[in-house]
Known about the structure:
Blueprint: H1 2-27, H2 34-54, H3 63-81, E1 83-85, E2 88-90, H4 92-109, H5 113-130, E3 143-150, H6 156-163, E4 171-177, E5 180-189, H7 195-204, E6 208-213
Antiparallel strand pairs: 1-2, 3-5, 3-6, 4-5
Amino acid sequence: MIDELIYLLRIVFAVVLGFAIGFERKLRFKEAGIRTHTIVSGGSALIMIVSKYAFSDTAEFDSSRVAAQIVSGIGFLGAGIIIYRKQVVHGLTTAAGVWATSGVGMAAGGGLYIVAAGATVILIAIQCILHLRCKLFSTKKYVRLKIVFEDPLSQNANKVTELFGVERFNKLHVERKGGNILCTGTVTTDKELPASKLSTILCENNYICEIERCDDE
């Protein structure tokens, strides 16, 4: 009875650690928050305890067999969190956090209290540090633009690529309209281009007829 109470306390400890990790995720409005991380951590601890102590009286006892299935099981859960939408992967960090939280629960269930608590602090610290507004940790954001411009002398195409800091067009369509050569090209750039900047480019370059953001396509 006393042993089982100790095991139960391990699960409670894992739940507290999972709550701490999930609370940090909730503050950043992530898909997996307090409930997900708490249940994953507590469930992993429960499975670890069952794996380690429930089958110790059997002839062929290997506590790692059941515990190893936690890793693969959480892998399926993480795959459900990851979404590929509009050529961008969403939820990858959240899925990795859930997977790591299961490891925290396993450590707590196995009685490695210092390891579980230390890993929790490290995970939360990593999330906080990497979310700092620092160029070292930031990922470049790319913008895709569709640009319509006149190019009667075949010179403006190079001006457009230089203007947006790219080497070439992703796509370029050239057609004749009303005796003029009209080009429609798409470029991908990492420059900061708010609406005011695009308006300035249109005003200062008369050969550019239209600029449209199409990075969500």
